[in-house]
Amino acid sequence: MSFSASDLIALLDLEPIEHNIYRGQNRDVGTSRIYGGQVLAQALVAAARTVPEDRPVHSMHGYFILAGDLKVPVVYFVDRLRDGGSFTTRRVTAIQHGNAIFNLSASFHRPEEGLDHQLEMPDAPDPESLVPELEVIRSRRDEIPEKLRDTLTQDRPLDFRPVDDADPFGTEARPPRRCIWVRANGPLDDDPLHHQAVLAYASDYGLIVTALRPHGMSHRDPRLMVASLDHSIWFHRPFRVDEWLLYVVDSPFAGDGRGFARGTYFTREGEVVASVAQEGLIRVRTR
Question: Fewer beta carbons under 10 A from the terminal one: N or C of the chain?
Answer without folding.
Answer: C
